[in-house]
Specification:
With 275 residues, the protein is an alpha+beta fold. It is built from nine helices and ten strands. The radius of gyration is 25 Å and the shape is extended.
């Protein structure tokens, strides 16, 4: 019988699961599973990393030496469980890392075998319209950035009904929380500007016109944004805001590139133009 698409295992996936991994990575896995699943056994390590029973046992023993108070063996369940005094010893076991991986799993950015999450809760995300970036365009931009080259771009702006040809010298990539853009020097406007990938209809490499990226002061300047609750709120509601943004002494400090400040304010609903 000819194998169907569903029954053919990817050779790349097999290599990913059974390929060589350093022990430190496996110790991180043990720490992560104890933190978020509360338990781990040898089969978890064997299935994820494609290692032998003796190696899995040795890894758990090594972890126990590093953090002797973090796990105990439940003989009835035949599983190692996190103790009540468990304290993670790797930064990859942080809540931020777990939630980022959970989001990546839900949006299919990561495959199950590419992260440490075992059991996962039901999760929902607020959908947003797809804003794809053409691979060819991204390749051209990345190569131009790396080689400090320029590009001729047929660009559709909001200000003009028809696309126009722009010569740009890109040096960075930005994301405003919803879409990707290129940070580049515009030779027509004689200024550093943002160019949305989706509006770049055609891209062609050109020689010369080298621009010093360090001249983009807004890109290389960091600014601090101090967030405080609206003083018009009641004390109880101000406290809610303080908790939500992890404020200390009534304020939270954020750091961002000056070139990204507009987008940060817009996401927070603080931009003055109401856009």
């Amino acid at each position: 019988m000819k194998p169907t698409r569903d029954t053919v295992a990817s050779p790349f996936k097999r290599q990913r699961q059974s390929g060589p991994w350093g022990q430190e990575r496996r110790l991180e896995f043990i720490d992560f599973r104890l933190q978020w699943d509360g338990r781990i056994n040898r089969s978890d390590l064997m299935n994820h990393f494609g290692i032998s029973v003796p190696q899995a046992s040795a890894d758990i023993a090594s972890y126990s030496e590093l953090a002797p108070g973090n796990l105990s063996y439940d003989r009835s369940a035949r599983v190692y469980i996190a103790t009540s005094g468990f304290t993670s010893i790797f930064p990859t076991s942080s809540a931020e890392h777990y939630l980022n991986d959970l989001l990546a799993l839900t949006t299919n950015v990561l495959a199950k075998e590419e992260c440490f999450i075992g059991w996962a809760p039901s999760m929902a995300i607020a959908s947003s319209p797809a804003r794809p970036v053409p691979s060819g365009t991204l390749v051209s931009v990345l190569r131009a950035i790396r080689s400090q080259a320029s590009l001729d771009v047929l660009y559709q702006s909001m200000a003009r009904p028809q696309p126009t040809l722009r010569r740009i010298s890109p040096h960075g990539i930005g994301h405003d929380g919803f879409r990707w853009h290129v940070r580049a020097y515009c030779h027509s406007r004689k200024a550093f500007r943002d160019f949305v990938f989706a509006r770049m209809l055609e891209v062609h490499s050109v020689d010369g016109l080298v621009v010093n990226a360090e001249d983009d002061q807004a890109w290389f300047t960091s600014v601090q944004l101090v967030l405080v609750p609206n003083p018009a709120l009641s004390p109880s509601r101000r406290r809610v805001v303080e908790l939500e943004y992890a404020m200390t002494n009534g304020q939270a400090v954020m750091e961002t590139r000056q070139a990204m400040l507009y987008y940060v304010l817009k996401r927070l609903g603080l931009n003055r133009d109401g856009g």
